[in-house]
Amino acid sequence: MPELLRQKVYQSIKEDVTYGKLFPGQRLVEAQLAERFHASRSPIREAIRQLQSEGLIRLDERKGITVARLSTKEVDEIFNLRWLLESYAARLSADQATPTQVAYLRSLQAKLKIAGKKADLEAWIHNNILFHDFFSENSGNDNLHKILVNLKHRVYLYHYIIVRVPGHFETYIDQHEEILKACKKGDGETAEKYMKAHIESIRRVLVDQLDKFRIF
Prior knowledge:
It contains 10 helices and 3 strands, in the order αβααββααααααα. By secondary structure, it is mainly alpha-helical. α5 runs antiparallel to α9 (168-185) and α9 packs antiparallel against α10.
């Protein structure tokens, strides 16, 4: 039971960070979290320690527990790593993609189009996470998957900045489409090429926005 509670607290806070319900720099109070989850301080602290080890939460002697605030440099570094690793995952998974897997990606693409038209940011983030996670999950490399999941969760909140840039929904969909076509053909090399272009375009827009309007 304590382990289930710790996992519930961990997962709930992680999702709140991912979907923008908690924002970078926001302070978390142990007593309030204990009240929210009807838990003692112990599972709260264990969940916080796990989130801290993943870079989502920071502990500061003056500020206490806060949601991690990334500098523009840190965001840039994370996307540079994603550029290398996620494109490699795309190559590995596209080379062996089955018709069923391609159909799954196509269904996510359809949901992303709907979310874009409705400007439903939470649905967009959710389905985009599933789309990108597909490649590391199906790469056949468990360590690659674990590294990418950690890197991506640290910057998902910042995607809220990207999707507010005019025309970005359409650009995103077009770039996904090229990756999808490569998967359908079983062409890992082309999937890698377009994933690199996709990640680079996200990095460039996000870093530019953070430099111009330091929101967090």
